[in-house]
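Here is one chain, start to finish.
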Amino acid sequence: MSYLFLSHRIDKDTPGFGGISDFNLKVVKNLSEGASCNVSRIEMSMHLGTHVDAPFHFCESGETVDEIEANQWVFRKIAFVRLKDVLANSIIDHGSWCEELPHDLDLLLLKTGFEELRGSSLYWQQNPGLSPALGDWLRVNRPTLRALGFDFISASSFTNRKLGRLAHRAFLEHDKSKGRPILLMEDLHLKDLHDEPIEVIGLPLRVFKADGAPMTIIAKIGVSSDFSCDDTCASRKPAGEEKKSETYR
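Its structure:
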């Protein structure tokens, strides 16, 4: 067994949605200048780097980060889906791959490979996004799902922000007819993740009444005896069983 960070380190070069990167680390006290200790302070958006969108981000009556119980940040029934050929500016929609998702999952991780562009302005200028229909379908048909994480900067495609706002609401708004809201974990580091994790723990900065928060996410990994997932296949299949290979964007 070993552990991986699924969150990026935050620094002055961390990309922000719309190209806004407002991270600032300020040294308040410095041992080298005769102070008794080293002390720093940070200034940044709650939605910079790897972070979570809480329901309150798009729903006035939704839960804030600090109101979500501790056990909701621990995931053990995880579906890891690799989506190939996800193009710039594309919208990831509900498709037949969703039907193959386990019915008891609590976390869905989408690996598109778009993270490879994270050092380029294309990462925020032409990022893919999620469709409202995907959020609606997952909430109704996979009611145990508590969070969705992915390796691009936002559920909202920068070139289609109107649709992106609808997508956020589809995942986050309180609507009893659709089941529980699904937390959105954006800008994940999935490059080094190659198989379904055994366990994922995602801990947000617990700020009072926050609509979102930066996260440290750790995955426990090992040899998978459950299933191996490629392309858009997400079902729990025995190793060696033929998998479907389709692409949805």
